[in-house]
Write a structure and sequence with these properties.
Blueprint lengths: L15 E4 L6 H9 L6 E5 L7 H9 L3 E5 L2 H4 L23 H4 L2 H17 L3 E3 L12 H18 L6 E9 L6 H10 L7 E7 L1 E2 L5 H14 L6 E4 L4 H7 L5 E4 L6 E2 L2 H4 L14 E4 L4 E4 H8 L2 H7 L13 H4 L1 H17 L6 H19 L4 H17 L22 H4 L13
Parallel strand pairs: 1-2, 1-9, 2-3, 3-4, 4-5, 5-6, 6-8, 8-9
Antiparallel strand pairs: 7-10, 11-12
Helix pairs in contact: 1-2, 5-6, 8-16, 9-15, 15-16
Length: 431
């Protein structure tokens, strides 16, 4: 009998998850790496210094993406530069440098310090030093693009051709509402030798994702996809799963029960700070309804039988001692559930992801409706889920996500791909 040829289904393009550890998050993340539950990579704030060295060395050993954030946006903003730990960063002196200096010797010095730091500490990727822009016509954009080019050259000169260069693009989402503004931005990046664009759009995230904001974010991503480089949505929270599912981005970045929204106000406006500058209260993730809640409220909610049955974590590998571990160890639970969510999206072919996510929203909304009387946060979650469902449900009629964007998989793209002609944005007319 002659052998039968079997056609295997195509492997779905991978999606990326980057986790940014806070001051006290490195130990739980080390545990997860040892257990084999690792994201695409970790983002390390330079201001935390050697405190997270064991985690980034473990990440490199596990062939994960170890990304250095030089905290340039913090250094270049009035409130950001007050964050603890920044003055110990080797390049902190650039906080007082203007456009002219950064295009000259001071910019070269900044890039040289960054490249040397990357070489000495074996980071696999770096976020380029960029400013928070007022819009696509901001003069600082030219400075940032110049620094990114110089940094790429400095890395190559040190034999670090394999180090990925990611470009953090931070600006108000409203400034890109007009298609002409988005087209102008795309033209500025046309010849850039970068490996991904990391989006920080203000304000956007779980609590700032109304219908207009969500639709605008997707439109921005579709236009940026013309560049042919991966897009990573930073600090988008639970709505980041929607962006992955609708093939707007190839990856998302999140904190550990923190970083669910990008708000430039914390960088631009001075605020009174109390308590430990490095700590933050852990939040409990109710994955069934895409919602975070404080630990006190979470403990009270999960004490109710109906809520525990509907929202309690059923995964014994995540919460070993039952749903009570959602409160006892909220960081572990939140990271594992985010990993699960991203893996589920990545396991589907792009054309099936939108409908699967809409089915999830319908189920989550039904649960929130059933439990809304137990706590105001559940009614708020119900309204948010219904809003997302209403906004996203019309998108498949207008956007056919056959292939999805270039995936964020933590490796350099061949230069011929990065500099290829921009591909068109999918469009269609409604009948």
């Amino acid at each position: 009998m002659s052998p039968q040829l079997q056609l295997l289904p195509p492997i779905p393009p991978p999606v990326g998850l980057y986790v940014r550890p806070g001051w006290n998050d490195h130990l739980i993340l080390q545990q997860l790496v040892v257990e084999g539950r690792a994201p695409t990579g970790f983002v390390f704030d330079a201001r935390y210094g050697d405190r997270q060295r064991d985690l980034w060395e473990a990440a490199v050993d596990a062939n994960l993406d170890a990304v250095l954030d030089p905290n340039a946006q913090e250094l270049w903003t009035p409130a950001g530069r007050q964050l603890s730990g920044l003055h110990g960063v080797a390049w902190s002196s650039v906080a007082d440098q203007g456009e002219f200096s950064l295009r000259g010797a001071e910019g070269e010095a900044l890039v040289s310090l960054l490249a040397d730091h990357i070489a000495a500490n074996h980071f696999t990727s770096v976020l380029a030093p960029t400013h928070y822009l007022q819009g696509p016509a901001d003069r600082q954009l030219g400075v940032d693009l110049h620094l990114a080019r110089v940094l790429r050259r400095a890395l190559d000169q040190r034999g670090l051709q394999g180090v990925r260069l990611y470009y953090p693009l931070a600006l108000p989402a409203r400034s890109l509402a007009l298609p002409a503004n988005r087209a102008h931005l795309v033209r500025q990046f046309g010849d850039m030798d970068i490996d991904a664009i990391w989006l920080r759009l203000h304000p956007f995230g779980t609590s700032a994702s109304g219908p207009i904001a969500l639709r605008r974010y997707i439109d921005i991503c579709l236009d940026l996809q013309r560049l042919g480089v991966p897009l990573v949505a930073e600090r988008t929270g639970t709505v980041g799963i929607a962006l992955l599912s609708f093939n707007a981005v190839g990856g998302i970045e999140c904190g550990v029960t923190l970083g669910e929204r990008f708000d430039a106000g914390r960088l631009l406006h001075m605020q009174s700070r109390t308590g430990d500058p490095y700590s933050h209260p852990a939040m409990v993730y109710l994955a069934a309804i895409d919602t975070f809640i404080g630990t006190v409220e979470g403990r009270q909610l999960l004490a109710r039988r109906a809520v525990k049955a509907a929202l309690g974590c059923p995964d014994g590998r995540c919460c070993r001692h039952g749903p009570e571990d959602m409160v006892r160890d909220p960081r572990r639970h939140a990271v594992i559930q985010r990993l699960r969510e991203v893996e589920q999206v990545g396991g589907l072919p792009p054309h099936r992801r939108p409908q699967e996510y809409l089915d999830h929203l319908r189920n989550a909304g039904d649960i929130a409706v059933r439990l809304a009387a137990n706590h105001p946060v559940l009614e708020k979650a119900r309204r948010r889920l219904d809003s997302w469902r209403g906004t996203l449900s019309i998108l498949p009629d207008e956007i056919v996500p056959l292939t999805g964007p270039v995936p964020a998989v933590g490796r350099r793209l061949p230069r011929v791909v990065r500099l290829s002609r921009p591909r068109p944005v999918p469009t269609a007319t409604k009948g």
